[in-house]
Amino acid sequence: MKLTNLIFATSALLLMACNKPADEPLVPEEANYVGTVTVIYQDAPYDTEDIEVNFTPAQDGKTGSLTIYKIRFVPQMPVTIDVTIPDIDLTSTTEQINLSCTNVIPLAMGGEYPRYTVTDLQGSIVGKEISFSLNFGTVPTSYRGSVK
Amino acid sequence: MIGALILSIAILTTPVKDTVLQEARITALKETVPVAQMASSVSIVGSQLLQYSGTYRPNSLSAIVPGLYIPDYGASLTSTIYMRGLGSRMENPVLGLYVDGIPVLDKNAYDFDWEAVQSATLLRGPQGTLYGRNAMGGVLSLRTLSPSDGARPSFFLEYGTANTVRTGGSWTAGNHAFSATFRHTDGFFLNAFKNALCDPYNGFSTRWKWEKGNLSTVLNVSFSDEGGFAYGQVIDGKELPVNYNDEAGYRRLSALAGIKYRYRTPEWIWDFNASLQFLADNMRMDQDYTERSIFTLQQKQISDAFTGEVLLRREDKSATWQPTTGFFGFYRLNALSAPVLFKREGIEQLILNNANKNIPADIGYLSIPDQEMPIYSDFLIGSWNAALFHESVFRLGSWLLTAGLRLDYEGARMVYDCLAQLSYQFIPTMKAAKPFEVPYRGGVTHHYFQVLPKLSALYEAGSHLRFFGTISKGYRAGGFNTQIFSDILQYQTMSALMKDLGVYLDKEMVSVVAGNTEYDPEKAWNFELGARYGKGNLRADTAVYWLEVRDQQLTVFPPGMTTGRMMTNAGRSRSLGAEAQVNWQPGQWRLRASYGYCHATMEGKYLPYVPAHTLYLQSGYRFDLGKARLTLDAFLRGAGPFWWNEENTLREPFTMQLDTRIGLAFSRFELYLRGQNLTNAATHTFYFKSMGNEFLANGKPRILITGISFSI
Question: Is the bond into B58 cis (omega within 30 degrees of 0)?
Answer without folding.
Answer: no
